Amino acid sequence: MSVASQEATGLPNRIRRYRVTTACVACRDRRVKCDRLKPACSQCARAIRPCKYASGKSKRIAFDSVTGPRPKAWSEDSWTSLLDDQLESSERASSLDAKRPSWAVGEDEEFSCPRPRRCLPRTNIIPISSLNEGYINWLEAHLPSKIICQTFFENFLQDVLPFVPICHESALKQVYTEFWTNLSSQTSVELLILVLAVLCTGSYNVPCPDMRSSATLLQLYNNVAQHMDLASFYIRNEIAALQLLQAHLIMNTYRANHLAPFAAFGFLPQAIRFGQSLRLHVAGTRPGNDQSSPDSPIKRAHAEDRRRTWYHLLFLDVESVVANGLPPIIRSDGYTTNLPSIIHDHDLSLTPDQQPTQTISPMMVAMQGHYQWARHMQKWFERLPTHAEVSDFKGLIEQLLNLVPQKDSTENQWARTYLNMQIDRAYCMLGLRFWRLDRFSGTGCQSKIVRTARSFLQHYLTLSSLSNPHSSWFLPGLIQPLHALIILLMHLSTCTNVCSEESLSRSLLDDVFELRVSRILAGTVVAEKAMIHGEQRPQRSNTRYSMLVELRAKVWKKLGWDKDGKGKDPWGGMLIDEDEDTDEVAAEEVECQDLGMDGILIGAKGEVQENQEPSAACEDSQLDNFGDPGEDPLDMFHWDKWEGLAEGLFVS
Q1: What pTM does this model have?
Q2: Residue 51 structural domain
Q3: Are 524 and 584 in contact (CB under 8 A)?
Q4: 119 and 428 in contact (C-beta within 8 Å)?
Q5: Most CB atoms within 10 A, among 349, 443, 453, 542?
């Protein structure tokens, strides 16, 4: 034996490589070459000894499936059978639940397979200390006192939460109490920004606003929000991430109704995508880090918050379509989330079956009505409804009307009026479509669509009078009466019975315009970036909203209602003569809008032009671009030009 082989065999920790042996036992023991002939190899045959081969099978590595059973193996010539099997599977899935979209069935199959356990990062929150080492000290020094904040919080519960019910009231109270009890450097930043959004929106709705505290809360919110952008936020804890989304929606919904309508929903795409990443659009989804019992109060509150948040996103999506004419982001088949509850709104210690019927909230019933309106309008944006579908929608709203208590209170009256307005609003958005196709045939003063438009405006004005001054931010703020206004204005442009419309429609239109203008002059909320000095004001650069103002001016002039001293002046004495200098008018506008407020309450400089009469030159320029000089754009022959202006506002 060589020295190398002796040294190799003498190594105590020598790594040996095991090979599968195919030689016979005798040749293997004698360490000679075996030709592996059977039943006896040549070596054993020459030596006349028995030849025996090892009978043990070689070990093979077995790979266990971690994603479910292996698919059936198919031969190369069995593609037809494979396609037939896939077709049968899809038909079987469709027969199980024909109403569910295909993406939802696919997700269920994917998540039903067993998954390997991976080393996931520990689910945690983002502490306040991550913002800055001394941020907690700075926060405690600038945050208003607990007594002042309690007033803001109670005002939020009364004037903001009923219209943005994305947080369960009992759960929000518990979270708010824990925030003040456990405020430290380890407090969640997501919880902090939710509390700041609640306090900030509540502070601007108190009867006597504390401008210093409100400005401080707004500064605190903006400071935290710049670190918590939804587009770049990494979801560590789904419950905390939902709090971040709720804060984002509360603040931006409150701001949206005070901005120019066509530019007020820029926050919505990111919010919807963030909600989809939290799987709010999928029914029955449970957060991965939720270890509570499915029947626990915490679990029920969180599930309810998820449903309410998703349907608020759906409602805002449809409102943005009404306001800016852009296509909706959420498709009618893009979610399976169930509607929120209208019963157990105040007490989660009891199950829904144990809740007394007295816990039905009229405001939650009203919000259920606009959720139903949003769902149906979303479908009807994609295709026109049948008469039966419109009747079914009306029946749903009437069922909700029966749930509102009969007790004659302001809250119950507001809820019933708001539900009735949903029926009129849906018909106006749909009826104008058919009205355009029929070229206004059969649209007399008592036609159904004209009467529906009047009914909508009457409900709109009633709700504005029923709402207290601190909840007017929702209506007339957020809800836009565009369709009813244009229906009546286009009807008046061809109406021959002027005396009848003088009493039926003129006062309604004057009151709605006056309501809008008075709200603007009273001061509203608008973001600083919306007021860029030296640039053209946004309403004059938006064709649809310019059309509304200019159409009214043309109709009033044609009917002889302009400056005749009859009825109300919808512009509060701000009608502009043809020879008036536009610079002087602009100076007067700035003077009456300058409220001397900081932060969020600055004045709706970007909103006044929506409802003010422009000068004659500006008045005619927009319309003359769509016809030859000397033509009257209100003639029925030129309706296609008006249709181009109105495109995107209505269901088509």
Answers
A1: 0.71
A2: 14-56
A3: no
A4: no
A5: 453
